[in-house]
Amino acid sequence: MKLIRWMNGSAPATGIMINDEYFDTSAFAEDYNEEFFENDGLTRLQKFVESSKHDLPKLAKDIRLASPVARPSKIVCIGLNYADHAKETNAQIPKEPIIFFKSTTALIGPNDDVIIPKNSKKTDWEVELAVVIGKKTAYVGESEALNYVAGYCLHNDLSEREFQIERGGQWVKGKSCDTFAPLGPFMATPDEITDVNNLRLWLTVNGKIMQDSNTANFIFKIPFLIS
User: I need a labelling partner for 48 at 20 to 30 A (CA). Which of 88, 144, 176, 207 fits?
Assistant: First the structure.
């Protein structure tokens, strides 16, 4: 499945994407939040969609999309995890994952306006793959780690590089500003992904490709990171 959330006036509502069309699942009456995922909401949603697919209201393609998942308890990020990017920037390959957090208030929809922080000089962008953890996860082995994944999203990891690097070397200060985590347009469940270790990720700015890489270039693979 491909889950979406959309703005019904000032309030988020739930939906699903089928063959590139948007459909309203508000009648399901559950938001795509932590409680939903933790209590096997994906199975219930799938049964609901299968039983109601001919009756689901179709949504306009120009609706305002919200983050496909409701605000999580935390956003855990991995820095410098592309081998090609490390080589490009002459950065040393980390021996262990570089971990930092983004504030949950940074989360916005994929097409929402980004607020440039006051006194910003070097606001920057990075395309990333977001992994949505579907249930409480602690001390899991690599072989079972993907069993805890609810799905995957595109994430624009915005940063203010001067705040991050030149003003105390604090990554969170440069990455946790409000609106600095656009997510979406949808969350794809794992069955939608043929090979998570071979996903092309690219980013354009004003029509020009600025990033083009692949999850095959990850220094630390997703199961290892979760474990």
Answer: 144
What gap in Å lies between CA 222 and CA 192, rounded to an integer? 16
Residue 6 pLDDT: 98
Tell me the residue length of the chain.
227
Residues 109-127, mean pLDDT to the nearest whole number: 96
Would you say domain 75-226 falls under CATH 3.90.850.10?
Answer: yes
Beta bridge partners of 128: 155
**How many angstroms separate the CA atoms of 159 and 163, rounded?**
8
pLDDT at 195: 95
User: What are the pLDDT digits (tens) for 176-191?
Assistant: 999 999 999 999 999 9
Going from N- to C-terminal start, the domains of the chain cover: 2-66, 75-226
- Percentage, residues of the chain above pLDDT 70: 99
Which CA distances in Å does 215 have to 82, 126, 180, 199, 203? 8, 14, 22, 5, 14
- The per-residue b/e assignment along 83-121, b for 16 or more CB within 10 angstroms, e otherwise, is eeebeeeeeeeeeeeeebebeeebbbbbebebeebeeee
Alpha-carbon distance 30 to 128, whole Å? 27
